[in-house]
Amino acid sequence: MSNKIYSIGRQLTLVVILGVALVLAASSVLLNIVTGTEMKKFFDYALLDKARALETLTEIDKGKIDLEFVDKIMPEFEDKKDPQYFELWVDGNTVIERSGSLNDHDLPQTGLQLGEHRFGDLVLPDGRLGRLVEITFVPQVEDDNENDQWMTGNSRIAFPAVTLVVARERVSLDRQIMTNRVTITATMSVVLVLIAILVSKYVKDGFSPVNRLAYQVQNINENQLGTRITHQGPQSIELAPIEQQINHLLDRLEKAFARERQFSSDVAHELRTPVAELKSLAEVGGMRPEDQDTVLAFFNDVKIIVRQMEKIVTSLLTLARLDAERGRINTVRFLLSDLVDSTLHRIPEVPKNNKFFENSVPRDLAIHTDKDNLEIILKNLLLNAIAYSPKGAIIRISTERYEQGVRLFVSNPATDLDTADIPHMKERFWRKDQARSNSQHSGLGLSLVDGLAAAMGLEMKLELNSNGEFTVYLFTLSTSPLN
Amino acid sequence: MKLLLVEDSKRLQRSISAGLRNFGYAVDQAYDGKQGLSFGETNSYDVIILDLMLTEIDGLTVLARLRRKGIKSHVLILSAKDQMEDRVRGLNLGADDYLVKPFSFDELLARIRALLRRQLDSKAPVVEIGPICIDTLGCKVSFNGSAVHLTRSEFILLEYLVGRRGQVFSHDQIIDQLYDSQTYVTRNVVEVHISQIRKKLNAAGAPVLIKNKRGFGYVVE
């Protein structure tokens, strides 16, 4: 992939101007050709008209072909300055008449069929470039009786065909064509410049929302994630989805950054307090080594703190492993009820005081899943249920069949919870108690359960009913019949 | 000197209180905001060490309420919150100092001492009254360069009176300021300490430092 940076606006301007220039150039060439051809044709037909005029002046009078009153009607053939020329032949090579401007010079003739005409270029006797028209015709007979002499029955018996060549300079034509060509080219150039200016302006104006968007995006950094892309005036169809998508991503990014900051702050806080406790215990204990009772009590505190820190670090490591999708799942078949019993058994008696457990998981329900992970899940759910339920509470562990299969649930009365807490309960380090005074719990339990469940392909759902009973559902369990 | 420690971590309470008592300070302990506010409002403390994340009432509210009631005790916030905004908020609400957890006990002690010096006539840690020299940092007393050995309780009592020269303190005032609420102390204990201080200084050849204003109490002039 090329790293070359280019401007779409500039490229678009260039392409449009180039395209317009090509079109204008082609139009200019075409226009020049068409107008040149038309002017030449006009010039030629003017020459032909003159030749036809000479033709009407050519008569057969008393057996003689004559061209009358030319010098009077068409003095241009006699002019010394800028003269025109004609020459008249009979039977191809006998000159009957020629213009005075020719002196003794001849004009070229090719010998055409009767009624034909031909245009051509030539060098005039005065050395200028010229244009000629050659026509062949039968002169008109002045006297009707004389006409009869040439007729036998209904057709002529003799055919006195004459060839007339009329020529004139073509410098004026060439000049006119050149002037026309220059005018067209100049006009097209001016038009091209105007179009270039307009295209540049409109492309620049047209790209201003894109540039504004680029400027706004460029100015977004990790410290200004609250910034949102805005637009002035009506929103363009092309940019609206980009703006919306960027704003949507910024929303998510801002939340993710806030979560990360909160997470770091929570981790720091969770670890700061026990570290402060350890530091204080060590320093103060060191001041009074002779006070055995105090030092012993301090050591006891240190053990508890270390155990809690270990728990936090283990949970964080497990979460990090789950985040990196490195959680290994080892699926085995086992009886769910047995796992519930053994998990309950492993929970120390002290926290279980004044709480009652009801395991109604069917004894014969065998499931296929990661047993170790499910045990961690169950232990966390049970410890939470024990910690956050009132004295004398009944904690129920059971399964239920539903349309998609079997789900496991743990429920307990939770008088302190309200429905607004439910969406936050999976958040890492979330605790109902903002003071986080209970150092037994760090607020990682449910996020750990959620992460493990997801890794095992299970879904976790939290529910608080109107009676204040909090339930955690895990579904869908893969069941396996007993052999 | 009487201190109030408002901290919800019992382990931190235990170690800090033990450490401070080791240096002769009287420490009252409160485990939540409500208790801390109640103690702060009813007793007179030289320094209140206040955590921010407390149950019942949070630390900043406790601080604001104490200041609103005109409680002039120095307040040192002790918190795991290390953001600048948290410190600024705490100091703006009337705290005198802010210490972030984890902290060194020596630093906590130094800051408490610095706060205590603010209310004394002399800001220097070593106070000299004629040839008698009282080193509040090293907890030592000397006369003409020779050490006078005082017990911890005697030194605290002397330091308290020396720091407030010219002020007369009754037995009850001394008991109230130098002993925590859980310790039962009689007037006799104060008299015994005063007598011991006088005897030790006298033995070293020093003039009478603590005078008895009959019917009022004791004073260092």
- Which protein chains make the most extensive interface, counting residues with beta carbons within 8 Å of the other chain's beta carbons? A-B, 29 and 26 residues
Q: What CATH first level of the largest domain in chain A would be assigned?
A: Alpha Beta
Task: Tell me the count of domains of chain B.
Answer: 2
- The name CATH uses for the topology of the largest domain in chain B is Rossmann fold
Number of helices of chain A: 10
- Amino-to-carboxy terminus distance of chain A: 60 Å
Bin the strand percentage of chain A: 15-25%
Helix content of chain A: 40-55%
SSE order of chain B: EHEHEHEHEHEEEEHHHEE
- For this structure, what is the CATH class of the largest domain in chain B? Alpha Beta
Largest sheet of chain A: 5 strands, antiparallel
What's the end-to-end separation of chain B, in Å? 20 Å
CATH-defined superfamily of the largest domain in chain B: Response regulator
Task: Name the average pLDDT of chain B.
Answer: 87
Beta-strand percentage range of chain B = 15-25%
**CATH topology call of the largest domain in chain A:** Beta-Lactamase
Instruction: Give the C-alpha Rg of chain B.
Output: 18 Å
Question: Helix proportion of residues of chain B, in percent?
Answer: 40-55%
Can you give a write-up of this model?
The complex is a heterodimer of chains A (483) and B (221). With 483 residues, chain A is α+β, with helices and mostly antiparallel strands. Chain A has 3 domains: 9-178, Beta-Lactamase, CATH 3.30.450; 240-304; 331-480, Heat Shock Protein 90, CATH 3.30.565.10. Helix content of chain A is 48%, strand content 20%. In chain A, helix 5 (240-287) runs antiparallel to helix 6 (292-323). The longest helix of chain A has 50 residues, at 8-57. Chain B has 2 domains: 2-118, Response regulator (Rossmann fold), CATH 3.40.50; 126-220, Arc Repressor Mutant, subunit A. In chain B, 42% of the residues are buried.
